[in-house]
């Protein structure tokens, strides 16, 4: 039988490890976990659940602590199926057990499952659920963190926040805690998660963290619904969230491009060399799914998370950017990294066969992603010549100097 992991007295991790998942809604990941938690007072509550197909891990881990029938309450912090996929089975096995959720979740669940037989309890913001035995759950509505239905659950006596997807990371590992996995590795997985899922919600993150601070609820441990539990570095991940939400960046430039015959790649290299000569960090990402093996867009946005500048290149193909670049820009428009408190600058470039047009289209899409355009689109025909190379090197130097002046 799989075992639960004790995270505090009377609190257990009873989730599932999914070692195999490599793509989740277009985000590449090295596996993940679906975290669920058992809180045992006089009464017993189960917080969150698993993706469909992983219910067996959840049930075995619960039963390593107590019989499933001992569960008195189920808390559903979020409707998305990677957390709620076990509810259809649990609601059958535990037919009378109340399931706590927000009013919006109730409607959302009805669009996912047949909830007619569920014993649903809709929570009010800051409602308490005393379990007895020194365990009280408090529910905090957290709309749009990250879906309209989302809520956080707080276990006051143990100072544990169960914020569902917030503070999560997609990583499958034998370690359950930040200090076991290593803080740098944990932070890197958290950064990718934030770059892809949380950046568009930045104002809401800041507002919610402000509300939690005002409530004066001490948080010693953060137990998210994916990845490791923050037990030694809860304050560090909260601080990192504040910085990411504000768009705090390094003197770093991300250059992202695709190419058919590599002319645009030569230009990218010259921009990079110019910037490097000014002492700034540069990441050059050739987009995956293009002609060459490259970097997946979900990793490119991770690079952009702490970059002050984003430079995007594409040759012109039938008057437009390559589909990889266009697709990437649509992804970026949804994430809107340039719309955080601290701005990002950028421009577009690319090779053409005489007519061109791609960099102009890229510029428009970069603007929609909130990137402040600091240079007109730059085009050249076929291979860059010596003058082009020098121009691109100088541009790299120019933008590096510019970002060094930015906060
Ligand atoms: C199928 C195809 C369509 C193209 N369409 C255009 C176009 O609409 N306008 C243009 O100026 N060049 C066009 N070109 C030329 C490329 O933009 C040119 O070869 C460029 O140098 C390629 O840059 P790269 O080496 O970075 O791939 C096209 C090339 C191909 C193969």
TrEMBL record:
InterPro entries per the UniProt record, alphabetical: Flavodoxin/NO_synth (IPR008254), Flavoprotein-like_sf (IPR029039), Metallo-B-lactamas (IPR001279), ODP_dom (IPR045761), RibonucZ/Hydroxyglut_hydro (IPR036866), Rubredoxin-O_OxRdtase (IPR016440)
Gene3D superfamilies, alphabetized: 3.40.50.360, Ribonuclease Z/Hydroxyacylglutathione hydrolase-like
Matches recorded under SMART domains: Lactamase_B
All residue ranges annotated as the Flavodoxin-like domain in the record: 253-400
Protein name, per record: FprA family A-type flavoprotein
Species annotation: Methanocorpusculum petauri
